[in-house]
Structures are given as C-alpha cells and as structure tokens.
Design a protein that fits this description.
InterPro entries: Ammonium/urea_transptr, Ammonium_transpt, Ammonium_transpt_CS, NH4_transpt_AmtB-like_dom, RhesusRHD. Belongs to the ammonia transporter channel (TC 1.A.11.2) family. GO terms for molecular function: ammonium channel activity. The chain is mostly helical. The protein is 62% helix and 4% strand. It has 18 helices and 6 strands. A hairpin with a 5-residue loop joins strand 5 and strand 6. Helix 3 packs parallel to helix 5. The termini are far apart.
C-alpha cells in the first residue's frame, strides 16, 4: 500500500477525474442529496410512525403499511416512467413524455458552462433555464422523494377502511395521471411555469393536490365504520410527536433543497420554514385554549403541519416578517375550517377524511399559494426563477395584482384536475377490486387484514384464538394459555 506522501496511481487519478469532473459542484451536489434524504425521512419513517400512532390501535399496522408501500411503489414508478413525465420533454402543455430515468446521464455538459445559471426571454413568457452542476441521478432522487410524500400524504384521508389491494393499484395510477400533471405544469416547464405561477417547493404540486385528491378518494371509498368515526383515539401520542418531529426537521430539505443549490435562497427558505411552523403551532394552540380551554397535543401537531405547508410555496420568496404573517394565518384559517366549518358543513360530515388532510394540506397549501401572490419579494423571486417582473402585491405595481390572479388560476387548475383524475382512477380501480374493506375487516382491523398486530396487548377489535394449531400466515400460534409461541 502506498505511503501517505506517495502519489496516487495513474489509474486512480484517471478514475477520479471522471467521477469528479471539473464542472461538478460538490457542495451543491452534497446538499441536494442531503436534502433528498431529509425529505425521504419525512415519509419513511416520519409519516409511517405518525400514521401508525395517531390512529386507533387496531389500525396501526395497516396505516403505517399504507405509507411504507406507497413510498416503495413510487420509487420504482418514478425511475421507470414518471420522472420524465414530470421533468422530461413536452408531450402536451401540461404533461411530459414518459421514459426511464435509470442511466448516469448528466444535467449539463462540460462545454460552455456559464458562471451562473442563465436565462432567456421568449416575448411575454419569461423562463428560467436551470442548470445545476450535478448528475441527473441526484435530481431524479430529489424529485422522487417529493412524489413519494405526496402519495403518502394522500393516504391520510383514507386510513382505516381502504382495501389494501385497491391502494396497491391506486398508487401508480394517481402518480401517473395526477401528480405528474401538476409537477410538469408548475415545475417541469409546462404552461403554468411559463405563465409565471410560483410554487417554490410544492404548496400546489404536493399539498394542494394530495389534499384535494385525498378528500376525493375518501368520498369514493366511503367512511370508516360508525364505531371508528365516533371514537378514534391515537394509540400512542408520544410516537405521534416523534413522527411529527421528523416531519418538521425534514422540511429543511423539503424547502431548503429547492433552489437546487446551497445558496442564499436556500438559507432564507430554511429559516422562513421554521419561523412559520413555530408561529402556526403557537397560534393553533392558543385558539384551542381560548375556545376549548384545553391545549391539545394533536392540535399543536396540526398547527405545525399547516405552518409547514403554508410556507412551502413561498419559503424562498418572502422575507422573515412575511413568514410570521403566514404563520398567523396558517394557524388560524385551517383551524377555522377544521374546528368550525368541519362541524357545520354537510360535505365534511358526508366525506370521512380520516386525518383531516383536506384542512391541513389542501386549505393550507392553497392559502400559501395565494399569499405568495401578496408577499413574494421581487429580488428573492428573481433569485429563484429570475422571472424579473414577479412581485407580491404588497410591493406595488400592476405585476402584484397579476401575480395574485396567476396564483389563483394555478390553484384552481390543480384542484380541478385532481377532482376529475382521482374520481376516474377510483372508479376504474373499483371495477377490479372493492375500494373498501369488508365489514368483518373493519370490525377487527390489522389482524384480519394483515395477520399482524402493532402491540402484544389484547383490546379493541382483536380476536384471541383458543387453539394451539390456529396459526396465522406468518407462523404465529396462540396456545390455550394465551402465550405467543413461534412455530
């Protein structure tokens, strides 16, 4: 082995020059991969833990497994066809051409690199030509975890009654025919991107779409059992806080990674994200105390989530004071729609949205998108997409009012598409397998659906076998004494 001061072998030097070319920005590449990992942790284990603990004990395994399955399924679909549909060549103004993204291609070539990303003007349409200095594989993985968490969030609306086989079919269909549409339209160079609708990190692409789609799917699947709707306590509040904590801290990658560079904008986005989330949590908690005389831990988690969601479309586009304003509104507007309108309006009684995803993601995401039109700071907007005439209404000029209109139209497009596409997908899946579990499965829960239990404690909805040879599909038997044995 060569000594510490000895020159490296020629073959090693040649390999290194290929693996780390001159154009590669190792800092940006490292931050992008770290950001992707943080976003991935939000889903798995973050939402897996949160879902498995915030539901009734008999649904802990099923709820966690729905999130875990969705994450894995999206990864394969994404690299096989969905990435190119979201960020590839244009097929339609709102959709890209499908194709695999499994090679080791690079996003840019070595020749004629500009010192900074450059931009071009196409008449009335101003478009950013984004050229981050790292491999395509980094971008594929970064965008993959965003797609995955969108589907996992959607799952929160249909927990505790959706047939798992139906969920297995639903995930790739919704990713293909709904998520990729919003991603290409707003991020991949589609018509909303060209028009100047701003969605910094997924307030529309992820949260508004998953919230609307989840509510729509909940309508088609049908409600939980009457017993579960009447009483649905969390089985472990401390684990819920653990999942929520992973979600909160993982958001540093969610918003901090979207400038595609470790730059000034990413730092501003991370700070704004935490400021808005903290403000929203405090406002939601105080509203609970004022109107219900009790501070709720689950309510605080809801307020945290609405703050994170609301700031997402604006995280790198607004100043710190605006993040506080958005936190106040994200802690109060979704609180009102959930705690007041949710108990008064008939639609919320008919549609059983298990974890109130409509309020925490759809309402908060749309709110954040509209507030972006009011509060986006011109210089920060130009740092993100260099759409030089973009500015929030508070900064004056006719462009501010136009930007609000753009944000409204963008939100309406995402809402309309998800209502229609999700409905069609549910109808198609229903032709193959039932969308809802059987009454017996709804009564028993995890043990009937998966043959597994989250906790070795007997309780609600579980069956105790009295026969030694009565085994489950995973080889566990119950002796007459009640002790668990491995056979």
């Amino acid at each position: 082995m060569a000594g510490a001061g000895a020159p490296l072998p020629v073959a090693y030097q040649a390999w290194t020059s290929l693996a780390v070319p001159d154009w590669l920005n190792k800092g940006d590449n490292a931050w992008q991969m770290v950001s992707a990992t943080l976003v991935g942790i939000q889903s798995m284990p973050g939402l897996v833990i949160l879902y498995g603990s915030i539901v009734k004990k008999k649904w802990a395994v099923n709820s966690a497994f729905m999130a875990l399955y969705a994450f894995a399924a999206v990864v394969i679909c994404w690299v096989t066809w969905a990435y190119k549909m979201s960020f590839g060549d244009k097929l339609l103004p709102f959709w890209g051409k499908a194709g695999p993204a499994l090679g080791q291609k690079f996003l840019i070539k070595q020749a004629a690199l500009p010192a900074t990303p450059h931009y071009y003007n196409t008449g009335a349409l101003e478009t950013a030509e984004i050229e981050p200095y790292y491999p395509m594989a980094t971008m594929v993985w970064f965008q993959c975890v965003f797609a995955a968490i969108a589907v996992v969030i959607l799952a929160g609306s249909v927990l505790a009654r959706m047939n798992f086989k139906a969920w297995m079919m639903f995930v790739p269909l919704w990713l293909t025919f709904s998520y990729t549409i919003g991603a290409f339209s707003l991020w991949g160079g589609g018509f909303l991107f060209q028009w100047g609708v701003m969605d910094y990190s997924g307030g529309y692409v992820i949260h508004l779409s998953s919230g609307v789609a989840g509510f729509t799917a909940a309508y088609w699947v049908g409600p939980r059992s009457k017993k579960d709707r009447e009483r649905f306590p969390p089985n472990n509040v401390l684990l819920t806080l653990t999942g929520a904590g992973l979600l909160w801290l993982g958001w540093a990658g969610f918003n901090g990674g979207d400038p595609y560079s470790a730059n000034i904008d990413s730092s501003m986005a991370v700070l704004n994200t935490n400021v808005c989330a903290a403000t929203s949590l405090l406002v939601w908690t105080w509203l609970d105390v004022i109107f219900f005389n009790k501070p709720s831990v689950i309510g605080a988690v809801q307020g945290m989530i609405t703050g994170l969601v609301c700031i997402t479309p604006a995280a790198g586009l607004v100043q710190g004071w605006a993040a506080i304003v958005m936190g106040v509104l994200s802690g109060s507007v979704p609180w009102y729609t959930m705690m007041v309108l949710g108990k008064k309006l008939t639609i919320f009684q008919i549609v059983d949205d298990t974890l109130a995803v409509f309020h925490t993601h759809a309402v908060a995401g749309l709110l954040g998108g509209i507030l972006t039109g009011f509060l986006a700071e011109p210089r920060l907007s130009s740092l993100f997409l260099a759409v030089t005439n973009s500015r929030g209404a508070v900064y004056g000029g006719s462009a501010g009012g136009v930007q609000i209109l753009k944000q409204l139209v963008g939100g309406l497009f995402v809402i309309g598409w998800n209502l229609v596409a999700t409905s069609i997908i549910c109808v198609v899946v229903k032709l193959v397998v039932p969308l809802r579990m059987t009454d017996e499965e709804l009564l028993i829960g995890d043990d009937a659906v998966h043959g597994e239990e989250a906790y070795a404690l007997w309780g609600d909805g579980e069956k105790l076998s009295l026969y030694k040879d009565d085994t489950t599909q995973h080889g566990m038997a119950m002796a007459s004494s009640g002790a668990t044995q491995v056979v």
